[in-house]
Structure formats: structure tokens, C-alpha cells
């Protein structure tokens, strides 16, 4: 049976920190590949962040429109508020799912920053 801690990645361990150093020392092109991968991941994080902002904007705009219409006249039915709450809940569910994906991509970028680029900058 293996130790459960052996599968975990520790960025402070000396053998794990060697990855960035090897990237700089060897002229295999790994540095170029990592730079392109990093650029792609940063773009993906930006795209997901924009999607999160759009969902929030739609939820706020929809609720403001419903509140404005529902309270603009006494003749307007107020059950529309319940429908608005259901729709906003759906938007928030979509946003929670998108935030999970955003967090995965953000953590990938952070791993590249901590374990590759820091080594390149500090130990060059």
C-alpha cells in the first residue's frame, strides 16, 4: 500500500522545484511550449471571467426590470416577483457551475506561475 502523501504535489520540495530550472538550462524548447500553454490558459481564464460577468449582469438586469414593472402600477400582478426569483436562481446556478470551471483554469495558471516562471526568474 502506498503512502497517501506521496501523490500530492509540494511546490516547496527541492525535487519539484527542479522543473523550472531544467526548463531554462536545457534548450529543448520546453520553455517556448510552456509560454504558449501559459498564454492559452490565461486567455481561457479571461474568457471564463467574462462569462461570469455576463451571467451576473443578466441576473441583475432581469431583476431590476421585473421590480420596476411589478411596482410601477397597482394593477400589475405581483406574482411576477416569484417568477423573477426562480429565473434569478437559475442564473445563479449557471454562474456557480461556470465559477467551478473558472477556478480550475485559474488554478492551472497559478501552478504554471508558481512552479515554472518563478524558477526561471529567480534562479536564472
TrEMBL record:
Residues 1-10 have a biased composition (Acidic residues). Keywords: Membrane, Transmembrane, Transmembrane helix. Residues 15-24 have a biased composition (Basic and acidic residues). Residues 1-25 are annotated as: Disordered. InterPro entries: UCP01500 (IPR014470). It comes from the Archaea. The keyword Membrane applies. The chain crosses the membrane at residues 78-96. The keyword Transmembrane helix applies. Coiled coil: none annotated. This is DUF2270 domain-containing protein. It comes from Haladaptatus pallidirubidus.
Amino acid at each position: 500500500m502506498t503512502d497517501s502523501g506521496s501523490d500530492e504535489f509540494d511546490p516547496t520540495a527541492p525535487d519539484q522545484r527542479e522543473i523550472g530550472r531544467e526548463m531554462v538550462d536545457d534548450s529543448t524548447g520546453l520553455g517556448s511550449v510552456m509560454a504558449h500553454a501559459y498564454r492559452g490558459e490565461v486567455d481561457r481564464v479571461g474568457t471564463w471571467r467574462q462569462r461570469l460577468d455576463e451571467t451576473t449582469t443578466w441576473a441583475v438586469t432581469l431583476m431590476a426590470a421585473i421590480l420596476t414593472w411589478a411596482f410601477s402600477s397597482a394593477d400589475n400582478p405581483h406574482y411576477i416577483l416569484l417568477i423573477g426569483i426562480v429565473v434569478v436562481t437559475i442564473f445563479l446556478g449557471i454562474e456557480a457551475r461556470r465559477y467551478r470551471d473558472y477556478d480550475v483554469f485559474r488554478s492551472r495558471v497559478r501552478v504554471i506561475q508558481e512552479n515554472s516562471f518563478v524558477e526561471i526568474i529567480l534562479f536564472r
